[in-house]
Amino acid sequence: MTKASSTIKPEEAAHFGALAEDWWDPKGSSAMLHRLNPVRLAYIRDAIDLHFHCDSSLLKPLSGRKALDVGCGAGLLCEPLARLGAHVTGLDAAPENIAVAKAHAEPQRLDIDYRNEAVEDFGGKNFDLVTSLEVIEHVDDPQGFVQGLADALADDGLMIVSTPNRTALSKLLLVDLAEGMGQIPRGTHHHDQFITPDELEKLLGNVGLAVTDTTGLSYSPSKGFTLSDNLSLNYLMTVVRA
Asked: pLDDT tens digit string along 125-136?
């Protein structure tokens, strides 16, 4: 299996680590993630209810279950997962992110184990839920990274991944406009590293995983981010063992 040292890009870890102190500011450099997060959480909650046969009215559908968020940043997803009842582990390549995540979660007494560790060194932990949102486009070896995700997933577990699609629209909106206008820090995205849904499904299939749903994330100035049948900007995938 590919080692962690060839999967994490040091320059990517440094880029996001430099943004760590600002991560929880909804008007700061991660403002786009704050606007995107509620839409992603709604998708994840629906997938959890469907996969684990939970009533949508349950406040803690992940009670007694283990969740792993890979590329967790400062914990924007880990904290909601903990509030849904999960015992959460968050992994990130940037130690600065882990420090901020711990500091933010501690006064809330959330059950989150944050680690500055690569998923390839963390496999075989049998997590009921594995998530990795907007991460795979930043790694050096996508296939090795996906293998690490698969190794961490329980046999009957649920995986959610998301990433920008490699299209003309994603280049225009995410790179040329969002970064050019300062809505996203420059250097966050590299369009040639974006992955199409077909490519990602193949990577997942190579390690014994199957995609059960692919839903687009669209954006409009009037509505903001919404779930959509249009995959051309960004998309979420629900994944299970084949």
From this structure: 899 999 999 999
Q: What is the pLDDT of residues 215-232, one digit of tens each?
A: 999 988 888 889 999 999
- Under DSSP, the state recorded for 98 is H
Answer whether 81's CB lies under 8 Å from 52's CB: no
HSE-up (13 A, CA, CB side) for residue 162: 25
Exposure b/e, 178-202, CB count within 10 A at least 16 = b: bbeeeebbeebbebebbbebeebbe
CA–CA distances in Å: residue 168 to residues 47, 215, 219, 227? 29, 19, 15, 20
- What is the per-residue pLDDT for 1? 31
The pTM of this model reads 0.91
Fill in the DSSP letter of residue 171.
Answer: I
For residue 14, what is the enclosing H or E element? Answer: helix 10-17
* Domains recognised in the chain with CATH numbers: 4-241 (3.40.50.150)
Cβ contacts of 168 within 8 Å, gap of 6 or more? none
- Distance between start and end Cα atoms, the chain: 20
Give the 3-state secondary structure of 30-86.
CHHHHHHHHHHHHHHHHHHHHHCCCCCCCCCCCCCCEEEEECCCCCCCHHHHHHCCC
In angstroms, the CA 45 to CA 234 distance is 19
